[in-house]
Write a structure and sequence with these properties.
Blueprint (H helix, E strand, L loop, with lengths): L45 E5 L3 E2 L6 E5 L3 E7 L11 E8 L9 E9 L16 E9 L3 E9 L4 E9 L6 E7 L13 E11 L13 E2 L19 E11 L11 H9 L2 E4 L3 E4 L5 E6 L9 E4 L4 E3 L4 E3 L5 E6 L3 E6 L10 E4 L5 E4 L3
Antiparallel strand pairs: 1-4, 2-3, 3-6, 4-5, 5-13, 6-11, 7-10, 7-13, 8-9, 8-11, 9-12, 14-23, 15-16, 15-22, 16-21, 17-23, 18-19, 18-22, 20-21
Length: 362
C-alpha cells in the first residue's frame, strides 16, 4: 500500500496562517501497524488463562510463545493522559513462571502482508529505515526487547528499550536501519512481524543482541529481556503503536473507528446475525456476504451452539457443529447440524448472541 504525502497545502492559505512544518506529519496510512490504538476487539475485551499461542482479544495482536505461565489478556481503559488514546492492550500475569526453561518465551506480535510493505524497498540499495514508536507501562522496570522479523528471508533485527519508572506511561521510539538484503514477497502472506518480548529463556538470550539486520540466530534475539512472568503482580500495557518509514517518529495516526474496523475485518470477522433455511430436520444452511472482503478464504468456527427461529418456535443445536461448504474472500455458506424438528426449505434466522467466527489471520 503506497503512502502519499500532502504537500504545499500551506502555500494556498492566506498570510502563512499554517506553516509548512505543520504538514510534515500528514500521510495517508503512514502507520504500517493496524489497530495500533487498540480500539478494535471483535473477539472480546478480556480472555483469561492465556498460556499458548493465538489471537485472544484485541484485533491483529497475537500472543506467541511457550511455557510462559498464564495470563489474562484484556482491552484496558488505562491509557496515557492527554494523548488521545481510549484503549490499551494489557497482559496481566495470573500464573507465574519464575524459573524459565531454556526454550521459554512470550511475544506480543503483529504480522504484516508483503504487499503492504513494498514501498519500504527492503532488499535494495534504497531500503528505508523504519521507526517504531509506542506508549508502554509496567510495574516491572528494566530492559525489554522489540524486534522486526523477516519471515520471507529468515532475517531479524532487535533493539532494547527500558521501562524506567514503575506504573508510569512512557513513550518509546526505536529506529531500525533499512535492510539491503532480502526482498519481501509482493503477496498477501506474512512477510514482516513486529515483536514485543515479555520473557525469554536462554535459547534466546545466550548470545549477543543482534542490533543490525542478519540471518536469524535465536540466541541473539532477546538478550537482556526481563522475565515479566516471575510474579503474579506483574502486568504490561501498550498503546499507540506506530511503525513508519523514516528515521523519526511522527504523531500517532488516528483513524476513524469504521476505517480501523474494516482494516481488522480483512483478517477476522465475528458475525452474530444471518438467515438461512432448513435442508433437513437436523440441518440448517446459511450464507453470508462479508461487509469487508477477507485476506483469503476464511476458516469458520462457532463460539457456542447455534440458536435459530422460524418466527414461531426456537431451535437450538444439541452441540455445536459447522461445515463450511464454500468460503471465498467475499462470501461464505455452510451447514449447521445437530438440530431436531426443522422443516425442509423453511427459512430460519439466528436469534441470539452466539457467533460465527471467520478467520483469515496471517
Amino acid at each position: 500500500m503506497a503512502i502519499t504525502r500532502i504537500s504545499n497545502i500551506a502555500n494556498t492559505l492566506p498570510d502563512d496562517s499554517i506553516s509548512n512544518s505543520k504538514f510534515t506529519d500528514i500521510v495517508n496510512f503512514k502507520n504500517i501497524i493496524i489497530n495500533g490504538d487498540m480500539s478494535i476487539a471483535q473477539r472480546g475485551t478480556s480472555t483469561a488463562s492465556v498460556s499458548s499461542a493465538g489471537y485472544y482479544s484485541i484485533d491483529r495482536w497475537r500472543v506467541n510463545g511457550q511455557t510462559f505461565g498464564a495470563w489474562t489478556q484484556s482491552q484496558s481503559t488505562d491509557v496515557p493522559t492527554g494523548q488521545g488514546f481510549t484503549k490499551s492492550f494489557k497482559m496481566d500475569c495470573t500464573t507465574a513462571n519464575g524459573s524459565l526453561s531454556s526454550n521459554s518465551f512470550s511475544i506480543i506480535s503483529q504480522r504484516i502482508e508483503g504487499q503492504n510493505l513494498q514501498y519500504i524497498k527492503k532488499g535494495t540499495a534504497n531500503a528505508e529505515s523504519l521507526t517504531l514508536s509506542f506508549w508502554v507501562k509496567s510495574n516491572k522496570t528494566g530492559t525489554y526487547i522489540a524486534e522486526i522479523f523477516d519471515e520471507d528471508n529468515t532475517r531479524q533485527i532487535s533493539k532494547s528499550y527500558t521501562i524506567d519508572s514503575a506504573n508510569t506511561w512512557e513513550k518509546k521510539t526505536i529506529t531500525f536501519a533499512g535492510d539491503t538484503t532480502g526482498t519481501l514477497d509482493n503477496d498477501n502472506a506474512r512477510s514482516l512481524e513486529i515483536d514485543f518480548w515479555l520473557l525469554a529463556g536462554t535459547d534466546f538470550t545466550s548470545g549477543t543482541l543482534n542490533t543490525s539486520w542478519n540471518s536469524n540466530t535465536n540466541t541473539n534475539r532477546a538478550i537482556g529481556q526481563v522475565n515479566l512472568a516471575d510474579s503474579t503482580a506483574n502486568e504490561w500495557l501498550i498503546t499507540g503503536v506506530q511503525l513508519e518509514a523514516g528515521t523519526t517518529a511522527s504523531d500517532f495516526e488516528f483513524l476513524p473507528y469504521d476505517v480501523n474496523l474494516r482494516r481488522c475485518q480483512r483478517y477476522f470477522q465475528k458475525i452474530t446475525g444471518f438467515v438461512g433455511y432448513g435442508i433437513s430436520s437436523t440441518t440448517f444452511q446459511a450464507s453470508y456476504s462479508f461487509p469487508t472482503p477477507m485476506r483469503t478464504n476464511p476458516s469458520a468456527s462457532q463460539s457456542a451452539v447455534l440458536n435459530i427461529s422460524d418466527g414461531a418456535s426456537n431451535f437450538a443445536q444439541s452441540s455445536a457443529t459447522i461445515t463450511t461448504q464454500n468460503a471465498q474472500v467475499g462470501s461464505w455458506f455452510g451447514l449447521f447440524g445437530n438440530f431436531s424438528g426443522l422443516t425442509q426449505f423453511r427459512p430460519y434466522g439466528k436469534t441470539t448472541t452466539d457467533a460465527i467466527l471467520f478467520s483469515a489471520e496471517l
